[in-house]
Automatic annotation (TrEMBL):
Pfam families: Transferase. One of its GO terms (molecular function) is acyltransferase activity, transferring groups other than amino-acyl groups. One of its GO terms (biological process) is secondary metabolite biosynthetic process. Keywords: Transferase. PANTHER family: FATTY ALCOHOL:CAFFEOYL-COA ACYLTRANSFERASE, TRICHOTHECENE 3-O-ACETYLTRANSFERASE. It comes from Adineta ricciae (Rotifer). This is Uncharacterized protein.
């Protein structure tokens, strides 16, 4: 049974929010939550009140030439309630589930369709045998990143519990910087600009690649990570465990997967969320996808763990430089 939830106080008023290039991720953020008890009517009411604070989720995608916008049009949100008598109880699953077929029955995923598709969908499934409630949420990634999604869900949880949402209130207008600030004197920015493709094409390739390849999950113990970091950092105390882990995966592929050195991975493409690094670009209140992707410099030794880890660390330090971020964000 599907009903449609309106904002208790419509606040979109038809205003349009111009999206950044980094917002153009044509996918959804899907979550499943399991509760031993749930008041469904209270959840519907809480969602209605939360939408008044999050009018962007009542909007639709509008495309004008190459400009993508969200029009906050105060549309209803589909809320599906169903009952399941087949599943004995909710299975014990990992936090991240790779097999989408397990979760598909419990999520109504948002699709990318301009002007008609909602940016948020809810589905509640009541398991009759175990008396558990499965809440599936799907949000368009065009609205914002995982941080933005968590903030919305937290506000919904607070209101459901008859509590005030935690400050600060969300800001939906994107931080659009003037192109005049784009400085091609930075060698890396100049190189990226010369080899640039549209950001939607870049993310399209990533999503296509994920759909056509099988994910491999590797487990490392704390002891292994400590040992790996000890070997990889060498004398450079700035190199992190994350740097050495990335480097280890790269040199392992180079050593055992590729047949010749010409096939070796020569660079790492770093995708960095710059929220909270530079307040002149974006603050924690801002809803959106605030990421930058740039390649590292070329690896000097594609089979050396310390050398590769150090180059990865240098790339991350470059991206986290405020001056570089301001110039690079103009380009994206």
């Amino acid at each position: 049974m599907t009903c449609y939830i309106d904002a208790s106080i419509p606040s979109g008023n038809g205003r349009r929010i111009t999206l950044l290039g980094t917002d153009l991720v044509f996918a959804s953020i899907d979550n499943v939550f399991v509760y031993p008890t749930l008041n469904v009517d209270r959840l519907r009411n809480a969602l209605s009140k939360t939408l008044s604070i999050w009018p962007i989720l009542t909007g639709r995608i509008i495309v004008n030439c190459d400009e993508y916008m969200i029009e906050c049009s105060d549309n209803s949100i589909p809320f599906n309630y169903t009952e399941n008598n087949e599943l004995e109880c909710w299975p014990d699953l990992p936090v991240v589930v790779d097999d989408k077929t397990i979760l598909e029955p419990f999520i109504d995923s948002v699709q990318y369709k301009t002007e008609v598709e909602p940016l948020l969908r809810f589905k509640v499934t009541y398991l009759l045998r175990s008396k558990e409630y499965i809440v599936g949420t799907s949000t368009s990634h065009l609205v914002g990143d995982a941080y933005s999604n968590i903030r919305f869900l937290n506000d919904l949880s607070q209101i459901y519990q008859h509590l005030e949402p935690l400050p600060p209130r969300p800001i939906f207008q994107r931080c659009l910087l003037k192109k005049e600030k784009l400085d091609l004197s930075f060698p890396l920015i100049k190189e990226i600009s010369e080899k640039a493709e549209k950001i939607e094409s870049f993310f399209g390739r990533i999503i296509k690649g994920k759909s056509e390849t099988e994910q491999i999950n590797l487990s490392f113990s704390s002891e292994q990570l400590i040992r790996l970091h000890s070997i990889g950092k060498c004398d450079d105390e700035e190199v992190t465990t994350h740097d050495t882990l990335c480097a280890y995966i790269i040199i392992t592929l180079n050593k055992y997967f590729f047949l010749t050195t010409d096939e070796h991975i020569q660079r790492a493409r770093m995708i960095i969320n710059y929220r909270g690094i530079c307040d002149s670009l974006v603050t924690h209140e801002h809803v959106g996808n605030y990421i930058i992707s740039i390649p590292s410099s070329q690896f000097t030794d594609s089979l050396s763990l310390p050398s590769t880890a150090k180059i990865i660390r240098q790339a991350i330090k470059t991206i986290r430089n405020e001056d570089f971020l301001e110039k690079m964000a103009c380009f994206t």
